[in-house]
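Hello support,

Our group uses your service weekly, and this is the first time we've seen a run hang past the timeout. The protein is Exostosin family protein. I'm not sure whether the cause is the sequence or the server load. Input pasted verbatim:
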Amino acid sequence: MAKQTTTTPCTRTHQIGALALITITFFTTRLLNQPLSHSPVLGIDRFEGGLRWPERGYGVRLDMKVYVYEEDEIDGIKVLLYGRDGSVKADACLKGQWGTQVKIHRLLLKSRFRTHKKAEADLFFIPSYVKCVRMMGGLNDKEINQAYVKVLSQMPYFRLSGGRDHIFVFPSGAGAHLFKSWATYINRSIILTPEGDRTDKRDTSAFNTWKDIIIPGNVDDGMTNNGVRLVEPLPLSKRKYLANYLGRAQGKLGRLQLIDLAKQFPDKLESPELKFSGPEKLGKTDYFLHLRNAKFCLAPRGESSWTLRFYESFFVECVPVLLSDQAELPFQNVVDYSQISIKWPSSRIGTELLEYLESIPDKHIEEMIARGRKLRCLWVYAPDSEPCSAFTGILWELQRKTRTFHHSPETFWLHNGSIVNRDLVEFHKWRPPMPLP
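Update from on-call engineer: The timeout came from a worker crash unrelated to the input. Re-ran successfully.
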């Protein structure tokens, strides 16, 4: 006799439960298939202490070793640091646009990523305050060139890699052109510079996107300190001007156009023709007091395409308006500058620019300022113990430059892995001076 089976009737309660299960499954599947959300400013969602560098191409953490050449280690380094007679003091070179040469050197000396063993180093840092030394009369162009060549000829590891793992800082608009023979000797080395273009005055730019790193300018320490700053930002409603440009004209078209525009619209644009000296030269505090008094801070090019004013704007909390077509910006792999600044064609400086800025609602200005406030730590030269700083950002960028294997046109290797020169002399037996190109 066949076993009788019973079926449970499908009630309205079962129907509702099944429908709920299908709905939950559908939305859960959709949620899991969505890409992870990213910060609208940085394009990332992780970074130690609130912001994290992306893992694409960088690794999950900082993990490298940097060797810093000592000033007494190689004949010639002291000359690059303090001049021919040693009269230039490092502390005098901390301020101004060339201060990054000193700051990066000092931060590396104290960094947890520093190594005292060349054999285990991923990268090598050559200290030099040569921009400051030149400005103070400690060296002339010919002496700078001779000093660099002398130093490089004493570095076996520079020869081993062809300079590819050696780091130089050139902190001004002149960039690596301070070293007249840069194209012969360090054309493969890593150059840290705020300047991404110099072809306006020279046939060849010293900046190369595949190996060099754009760094932030050196904003005055009084504005970047975590404590009481030299000048605090003003509420947007209390700012007198729509926009300002506070700088010397230097005969540059864009700057002259802004000065003329300010004469036409003095209630909207503050742009006095400042001088190098005399009563029209603004002191440090007065400069920032003026800078904070506008919603937008205009940053036209000067002698070169980069401008410190772009970075200063974030600390007085005005929206920077970049008026320099060729300018390069740091950390573009992680910072979406369209969310925190404006770039306007330098060929369209005029009433059209003011009309455009005036059309932007205060709400949008406040939002851009708020986003900029979150990442201006990337313009501050602080130790790598800080989770967010210019130095930390530079270290992440440097990590992408590290190599497991090093070679140059003058290095060769044998079946047992030993590295030799053209005369088949093993690397550990190489002795200075090294032949250079």
